[in-house]
Amino acid sequence: MPLPVFALAKLGRSLDPAYLTGYAVLISGLTALAYWRDKRRAEAGEWRIPEKVLHGLELAGGWPVAFGMQQILRHKCAKL
After folding, report:
1. Structure confidence at residue 76 (pLDDT)
2. Closest to 35 in 3D by CA, of 2, 1, 80, 68
């Protein structure tokens, strides 16, 4: 088993599941909000949320929501 996976598995056993669930809900909500706001800013021609912020949220655990929001909002998929 790769070392990071082993470390996360061990950490997960020592934390209260309520904390892990709360973190997952929080990071998912923040990721969805960031993608939604970035899309609205793009439509309005305003300054966008930097990609490093969006990718940071993905790396923090929001990648499933980020993928879903990209599909739902057609975010960063094509320019006409």
Report:
1. 61
2. 68
